[in-house]
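Before going further, learn to read the protein records used in this course. The integers have meaning only within a learned vocabulary of local backbone shapes. To see the layout at work, look at the sequence and tokens printed below.
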Amino acid sequence: MEDEDRAELCFPQFPNTSCRKPMSPWPETVTIVFYSISLITVALNLVIIISISHFRQLHTPTNILLLSLAVSDFLVGLVLIPAEILRKTSCWFLGDYVCSVYALLSTNIPFSSVWIIVLISVDRYVAICDPLHYTTKVTRRRVKLCVCLCWLCSLFYSFLYIKDFPTQPGRAHSCNGECVFFCDPILLINDLVLSFFVPLTVIVALYLRVFAVAVSQARAMRSHITAVTLQHSVTPKAKKSELKAARNLGVLVVVFLMCLCPYYSFAIAGGTFLPPSFASFIVPMYYFNSSLNPVIYAFLYPWFRKAVKLIVTLQILQPGSCEINML
């Protein structure tokens, strides 16, 4: 009987300090599906990264934001999803420092994604509501600076959120073989405010304004009324292009919020009103957004489908391929 009990331990040689092997919250088929989603997420976002980085015509301010979002989604598929599956389904043999690094990344990457979505909303707001000054206000240099600041702020924020790293990486562990996090309740409240309420308010406010302006512009174009009569006014064709871009990125934001809200709703409720079987899907559902974004690109952006074809057929390796017309 004692041998059987030891077999259930993560470290049988240390029975007094070892955790018991965890029971997977999901069936084996669901675990396989999650690993498949991780692989698909990495592959699809890698296509986005290669496409926008390689083809010069795609080096626009909006696409720079999409590139940053794709990098974040790529890291989710490469690191966060596999680590979360491992943490929930088996003993943690990677040590306390790796667990702490995972805790840092699980805070850093989603935080940066949220605020990149905010930047995308700001980009569309300026493009639709102030099209005459868009090219002067939103430049590639400014967008790159904003993206760098976003990632830098998320890095500092994650260190504040996991304040015991790296001095006490295993302080929250009750036994060896688990990876759990301890966070100050005040910091949890800050996380809800800075990672959910504030960005959600900004995104919704901007897109309500964008939607109102887009509707008025669409009505003006349908009735052949020139909305802007200045000498350097934007042509109806350009307006139509901006409206389409706003719609596409609006879909991106809506899907993002659909994946974001259950996670933070669960955090607000503290898990009181949800069964454990549902709670175990909250984090994977949040990460699943990283797989959906490239699918949205595939359906809404013709350049993505063309880039996939060029990458798969290795045409991007040919000299001068970066100058191919993608639009």
In short: The two ends are 69 Å apart (CA to CA). The chain has one domain: 27-269+279-323. The CA atoms of residues 264 and 270 lie 9 Å apart. The domain at 27-269+279-323 is CATH 1.20.1070.10 (Rhopdopsin 7-helix transmembrane proteins).
